[in-house]
Design goal:
Distance between the termini of chain B: 34 Å
Largest sheet of chain A: 6 strands, mixed
Helix content of chain A: under 10%
Order of helices and strands of chain B: EEEEEEEEEEE
Distance between the termini of chain A: 40 Å
Mean pLDDT of chain B: 93
Structural class of chain B: mainly beta
Order of helices and strands of chain A: EEEEEEEEEEE
Oligomer: heterodimer
Number of helices of chain B: 0
Number of strands of chain B: 11
Radius of gyration of chain A: 13 Å
Low-confidence stretches of chain A: none
Number of strands of chain A: 11
Shape of chain A: globular
Structural class of chain A: mainly beta
Largest sheet of chain B: 7 strands, mixed
């Protein structure tokens, strides 16, 4: 199985930057995904990393180090609408397993 | 938006009763999944399907069964509901769990909130 760890909660100020770390232990790694989930809604796809390095998509970036079993999601220029839960997920043997999620609260 | 709908969206039932949740997709995706989401546990895979009549267990399959008689429909059944099965259930679809990575992306339904009294 997978062991995926991420912080439970983070708080940041509007306009600031927040980094959500995710560590994992798995066999047969295929890729790492980030999903966003607003309260009471379904998760939606944000980004994925298959190879080491940084992937940038607008205000969001995701980094992966396969040798360290480590990823982070970077949210820049935070907006109030970014208040949500962020789920780290790892594909291993082509099955997706999720971490418990990090709830980010953006304050004005 | 991807065509994936879940029904019912909310259900309250009593311990010991059978419950069936339905997931319907119009994307013709091969892979369909049922997850449950509980506070502190995140999303946990119950069962998944990789084609008509082809299903397999996930990490929390005890007490659940599934069926897929058509590409578009994936049913989750609780034969005898228990209070521990009170949860939010999400159905998801993907093109393929293999390559390219884009094909691994899951699209989720809106969720079904089940309360077992």
């Amino acid at each position: 199985g997978q062991n995926i760890d991420q912080p439970t909660e983070m708080t940041a100020t509007e306009g600031a930057i927040v980094q959500i770390n995710c560590t994992y232990q798995t066999s047969g790694f295929n890729g790492l995904f980030w999903y966003q989930q607003h309260a009471g809604e379904a998760p939606t796809f944000l980004s994925y990393n298959v190879l080491d390095g940084l992937e940038e998509k607008g205000r969001f970036s995701s980094f992966l180090s396969r040798s360290k079993g480590y990823s982070y999601l970077l949210l820049k220029e935070l907006q109030m609408k970014d208040s949500a839960s962020y789920l780290c997920a790892v594909t291993s043997d082509y099955k997706l397993s999720f971490g418990a999620g990090t709830t980010v609260t953006v304050r004005a | 938006d991807a065509g994936i709908t879940q029904s019912p969206r909310h259900k309250v039932t009593e311990t010991g009763t059978p419950v069936t949740l339905r997931c319907h997709q119009t994307e013709n995706h091969r892979y369909m999944y049922w997850y449950r989401q509980d506070p502190g546990h995140g999303l946990r895979l119950i069962h998944y399907s990789y084609g008509v009549k082809d299903t397999d267990k996930g990490e929390v399959s005890d007490g659940y069964s599934v069926s897929r008689s058509k590409t578009e429909d994936f049913l989750l059944t609780l034969e005898s509901a228990t209070s521990s099965q009170t949860s939010v259930y999400f159905c998801a679809i993907s093109e393929s769990p293999g390559q390219p990575p884009e094909a691994n992306v899951l699209t989720f339904g809106a969720g079904s909130r089940l309360t077992v009294l």
